[in-house]
Amino acid sequence: MITLASDFGSPYPAAMKGVIRRHTDAELVDIAHDLPRGDPRAAAFWLRFVLPEFPPAVHCAVIDPGVGTDRDALVVRAGSHVIVAPDNGLAMPPARALAGGAGGEGTGEERIEAFVVDVDDPASETFHGRDVFAPTAARIRTALDADPAATPEEVSDALAAMDDLSPATDPVDIVLPEPRVERDDAGDPAAVEGEVLAIDRFGNVVTNVPGDLIRGRDWVRINEELTPVAETFGAVDPGDRLVTVGSHGYVECDVNDGRGDGAFDLRPGDSVRIVADNVSV
Amino acid sequence: MITLASDFGSPYPAAMKGVIRRHTDAELVDIAHDLPRGDPRAAAFWLRFVLPEFPPAVHCAVIDPGVGTDRDALVVRAGSHVIVAPDNGLAMPPARALAGGAGGEGTGEERIEAFVVDVDDPASETFHGRDVFAPTAARIRTALDADPAATPEEVSDALAAMDDLSPATDPVDIVLPEPRVERDDAGDPAAVEGEVLAIDRFGNVVTNVPGDLIRGRDWVRINEELTPVAETFGAVDPGDRLVTVGSHGYVECDVNDGRGDGAFDLRPGDSVRIVADNVSV
Amino acid sequence: MITLASDFGSPYPAAMKGVIRRHTDAELVDIAHDLPRGDPRAAAFWLRFVLPEFPPAVHCAVIDPGVGTDRDALVVRAGSHVIVAPDNGLAMPPARALAGGAGGEGTGEERIEAFVVDVDDPASETFHGRDVFAPTAARIRTALDADPAATPEEVSDALAAMDDLSPATDPVDIVLPEPRVERDDAGDPAAVEGEVLAIDRFGNVVTNVPGDLIRGRDWVRINEELTPVAETFGAVDPGDRLVTVGSHGYVECDVNDGRGDGAFDLRPGDSVRIVADNVSV
Known about the structure:
Three copies of one chain form a homotrimer. By secondary structure, the first copy, chain A, is α+β, with helices and mostly antiparallel strands. Chain A folds into two domains: 166 residues, Rossmann fold (3-Layer(aba) Sandwich); 98 residues, Elongation Factor Tu (Ef-tu), domain 3. Chain A has six helices and 15 strands. The N and C termini of chain A lie far apart (52 Å).
């Protein structure tokens, strides 16, 4: 299997699929092609959320604001999974999640390995998705084909044996920010300093604050503003704000039938302070 | 085959695909993931339109405004087709269409059967698409795998033999509204009281009025407003309104190069009165 | 393999897939379903860009503003590829690219052949994608199935043997406009008279001017306006205009974090005059 993720919109990913089909009949699965445009950090959040659901596969992920510069093309092994991506950090958060065993691929010695792709003269200066990343993913998939249920060691050996891969000495990393939790005297969370990771297509504001920190509460303050905690959008009137836990497991700042990013005035990278408040209004 | 339909946008459906791939290699076909958000009735209209085109398959359909409440997860058999969906009525209009034989799966004794999924403690309170519906669809597909061309009786037996399914006693139903036709002295349709079922992404207003009732006419009145009937958008000037028959076979209120919902001031659930008018303008 | 391209949005293409699955298990690959609505010329540009990446396949392409009129349904062979499309010119630019050998399918005697589909009484007047083009693509794919690696001659013979295909005598053609290049005394390009081919979903203005004509320059004038040439959007400030070479290899007029069509006031079909300018600003 080869999964495909990008910020290319349409119809560019189809060109990648055509190129891959010239190399291999491996199944193609789209992750998304509307990932946050030119934002490897937000895209890494989504890939960290989605990729661990898959069985071992080759994942071709292209969010590449540096196309046309001399950034490397990277191949990252995490357990039996392989991520092919530009060397801008995008691959690292999902690789750690894959190696950590959400997919059951072990934790310890089968650590993450990174390789640089030796690219000589891609056909296009601007469409490395088609000219570099897709064919690399296809060749890796073909190299692994002899044994689709390969162990991490076997995948590692197969990558090491490929002529155009060499060990990456210092791949770019993205570390998604962790929230800072302040606890009260009883040890319960009283406040969290978090950060906006992404805005989805509905304008919902996705933070890095784990949902468990607000579950069971009725109200919290979001950057001072008293806001109801709800499990469903319908719990508040259309146009009203709410705080909820998104399908990804993190706190979202939303508006029923509206856009949370506008109402809360929040953008990716902004700070979000969430304070427990037990008032009844 | 497993088809997938939702209002999840992107990249959530990819997480469902990953989960399914841990269970089965069955082909995955996307129906749509931009179905009307949180609106099981409008989504049921689209599923009733699309699903009968398919050969027997497992259809996983998640439009689920009640996620987080105690609504059941439902499995509905219709002929040799199986729909896995929340118990909010969504599955019923397409199930009736599938049982009715658009796909040739018979009409009579092979009636619709509904089962409740015994869900204990899903991993997430908010992403039952991934944690409940996708794995259920995958397990059903695996249970049927021995015979992909299974008869309705064989599908019924396979579902009845699954440990975590029990007969549904009173599943929620959605009955899509039928238009009321007033006929003239000659028995020809003179007026229709219909209803808006859905707005598509172009703003086209989809009604429940069958296209045959306006075919051959040049003009009709839509809620009093005289409007040309046209087979193609290009028959009227850009910005002008028209009435046409959509690809789904129902009357649409549209604007060439514009949005019909705004021009006609119509929303899902609104009444549409269509009156024959033979004026030449 | 059957590829699918349309301007149908969602969920109409799923109905086409269901119909195809009643005929054949051939792999289905989406090219795009948000191609420029009702604009066969712009869609032909995108298909010319994408289809040559694929190995030989049956391509079902439906951008069909003439649905409901008596335009023919066409089958065009180009090398070992087959395009099924309305007879409005849409198929011709990609067919020439496919026959020209980007996919290695030869150039000379294996010329383009066109057939008309004998359609009697399609089920719907408005959804020929489902009722005419999809089943035709499925039947062609089945007819070729005996030998997936068929030569152009074998594909030609298979099409000629189909009962409901007859040679097209005068298929509609679209010839994408070629830019006119003015050279200076040294023979270098000094100015280009081009044309807008398409606007993508980000508002980027795609012209018919090959990227090679601006590569290496720092500034050009776009319809008089001095504009920087950049390899990446990030080379200019958010909101600022730039000229770049798109992934398709043609000159684009863009805005970083904004819409080029608005900023440059350009629409499909508009003229674009690009003049070399070596000022340093």
